[in-house]
Design a protein that fits this description.
single chain, 178 residues, alpha+beta, Peptide Deformylase, two-stranded antiparallel sheet, 3 helices, 7 strands, globular
Length: 178
């Protein structure tokens, strides 16, 4: 397994629309393993393949909500979504303070459907369909935006988006100078 470099805004590769996965094979499972290692190292709770420069419709999520998890002691619960599709979003909305590994250390409230239905393949190519809510629904919608070349900051007003990008650029210059 390897820790992959995470692309940061405004890298134009983050705006690429990802292509469907044709075959679930060992090479794809290696990418998935590398994505988990990268996400855990960052640390984060979700990562789309395009964020590590691979324009495939693959994303990984781990909310630390595995069996026996508590707020004080998260337990890994890795989830893989290949070629995910969303349908029947609820009219009810949730507001979450979102962040992103491609927009490091920047957060903003984003409104998304509270409940969604999703279809996807797992790491073995098995089909799944489920009704999702709460943080998992929000996280899946956030990561699926990446597959369409959309960042969470695109859901904000132009002024808020520009402020975040300026802060990100300033932080990047400070890191380089150090």
């Amino acid at each position: 397994m390897a820790i992959l470099p995470i692309l940061e805004a405004p890298d134009p590769r983050l705006r690429v629309v990802s292509k469907p996965v044709e075959t679930v094979d060992e090479a794809l499972r290696t990418l998935i393993d590398d994505m988990f290692e990268t996400m855990y190292d960052a640390p984060g709770i979700g990562l789309a393949a395009i964020q590590v420069g691979v324009p495939k419709r693959v994303l990984v999520i781990d909310l630390g909500d595995g069996e026996g998890a508590t707020d004080e002691t998260p337990v890994r619960n890795p989830r893989v979504f290949i070629n995910p599709e969303l349908f029947e979003p609820s009219e009810e909305q949730n507001l979450y303070n979102e962040g992103c590994l491609s927009v490091p250390d920047q957060y903003a409230e984003v409104e998304r459907p509270a409940v969604i239905h999703a279809r996807w393949l797992d790491r073995d190519g098995a089909k799944h369909e489920a009704r999702l809510d709460g943080l998992l629904a929000t996280c899946l919608q956030h990561e699926m935006d990446h597959l369409e070349g959309i960042l969470f900051i695109d859901h904000l007003s132009r002024l808020k988006r520009e402020m975040i990008l300026k802060k990100l650029d300033k932080a990047r210059k400070t890191r380089r100078a150090a």
